[in-house]
TrEMBL record:
Highest taxon, organism lineage: Eukaryota
Pfam families per UniProt: Sushi
Signal peptide: none
Classification via CDD domains: CCP
Keywords from the UniProt entry: Disulfide bond, Sushi
Protein name according to UniProt: von Willebrand factor type EGF and pentraxin domain-containing 1
Originating organism: Brachionus plicatilis
Length: 142
């Protein structure tokens, strides 16, 4: 509290760089690339993490400024290199491996089975990204 008894404004500093990725400030009307030279962001402001092409986000997809700290901490976020078949969320690994086996059993051509599996995973990832973006936008609009 400051000398007048009001809560002092607590800001969050730039969280650091995301190797092989970018950090975006989630504004009211749009998202902006967040740079170190930008001013500190205030209480309840949000940032979103996005990895470069051929990299997969591991950890939370964003953080919120709470009492001068980014929660969850960016140290929990990593962009890891992926190959063409490993774009799978760790929580979905067992399910998608089962899906691939079912597809492989149903199709005689293994190459066609893997192609179908890959396109199914990519479709799921696109839907998940869209849901995450919409969720972040909706939570900032409140």
């Amino acid at each position: 509290m400051n000398h007048r008894g009001n809560l002092a404004k607590i800001n969050c500093a730039f969280p650091g760089h995301l190797e092989n990725g970018k950090i975006f400030y989630v504004g009211t009307l749009a998202e902006y690339t967040y740079h170190p030279y930008m001013s500190n962001l205030g209480q309840n402001k949000q940032i979103r993490y996005e990895c470069d092409k051929s990299f997969k986000l591991m950890g939370p997809n964003g953080s919120t400024c709470i009492n001068g700290n980014w929660k969850p901490n960016i140290k929990l976020v990593k962009c890891v290199k992926v190959n063409h078949l490993s774009e799978i969320n760790l929580n979905d690994t067992l399910k998608t491996e089962l899906d691939e086996n079912i597809i492989s059993i149903g199709l005689k051509n293994e190459r066609k089975a893997k192609s179908l599996f890959r396109s199914n995973v990519q479709r799921r990832l696109k839907l998940r990204r869209l849901r995450n973006r919409n969720h972040m936008r909706q939570s900032t609009a409140k």
